[in-house]
């Protein structure tokens, strides 16, 4: 069976096109086109770029891009790469409960701290009646100074 590189080169020569003309028409570097015609696909940037180059090359020389990609896929050693399944770590139910309990305790501590800050008594905002006065001159605190009212 004819390789994809020789098939594309034969099609290009049958149309009377040079490699430079195909490079200008497809905007693919000449070195990449030479690698395609030599079947050195591993030297190209990647599988996605290789498929794009093949589709552009096929269109430039008047071939069906689907036919060219079909030939390429059939001729490759690795048709497709299946991703490996990575097993998800199994979470323990007890471990999750422990984490929730820790989060609950931390939230409770933060709530208690915020409440203690809000409820803390302040001396400057107490009413005049509750503030500390010097009671040595007036033991009653309500009688005018100098009155003789007994306590």
Q: Can you give a write-up of this model?
A:
By secondary structure, this protein is mostly helical. It has a domain at 4-75: Orthogonal Bundle (434 Repressor (Amino-terminal Domain)), CATH 1.10.260.40. The chain contains six helices and no strands. The N and C termini lie far apart (123 Å).
How would a crystallographer describe the biggest sheet?
none
Low-pLDDT residue intervals, each spanning 5 or more residues: none
Which class of secondary structure composition applies to the elements?
Answer: mainly alpha
Number of helices: 6
Radius of gyration (Å): 44 Å
Strand segment count: 0
CATH class of one domain: Mainly Alpha
CATH topology of one domain: 434 Repressor (Amino-terminal Domain)
Q: So, CATH architecture of one domain?
A: Orthogonal Bundle
* String of helices and strands: HHHHHH
Q: State the distance separating the first and last CA atoms.
A: 123 Å
Instruction: Give the overall shape, derived from the CA principal axes.
Output: elongated
Beta percentage is: under 5%
Measured as a percent range, the helix fraction is 40-55%
- Mean of the pLDDT scores? 81
The name of the CATH superfamily of one domain reads: lambda repressor-like DNA-binding domains
Gist of the model:
This protein is mainly α. It has helices at 4-14, 19-26, 30-37, 47-60, 65-75, 93-119. It has a domain at 4-75: 434 Repressor (Amino-terminal Domain).
């Amino acid at each position: 069976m004819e390789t994809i590189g020789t098939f594309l080169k034969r099609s290009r020569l049958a149309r009377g096109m040079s490699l430079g003309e195909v490079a200008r028409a497809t905007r693919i570097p000449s070195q990449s086109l030479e690698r395609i015609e030599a079947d050195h696909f591993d030297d190209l940037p990647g599988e996605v770029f290789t498929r794009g180059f093949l589709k552009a090359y096929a269109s430039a020389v008047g071939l069906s891009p689907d036919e060219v990609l079909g030939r390429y896929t059939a001729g490759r050693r690795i048709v497709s790469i299946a991703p490996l399944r990575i097993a998800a770590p199994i979470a323990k139910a007890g471990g999750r409960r422990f984490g929730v309990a820790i989060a609950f305790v931390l939230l409770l501590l933060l709530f208690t701290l915020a409440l203690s800050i809000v409820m803390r008594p302040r001396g400057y905002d107490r009413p005049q009646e509750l503030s500390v006065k010097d009671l040595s001159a007036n033991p009653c605190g309500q009688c005018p100074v100098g009155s003789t009212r007994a306590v």
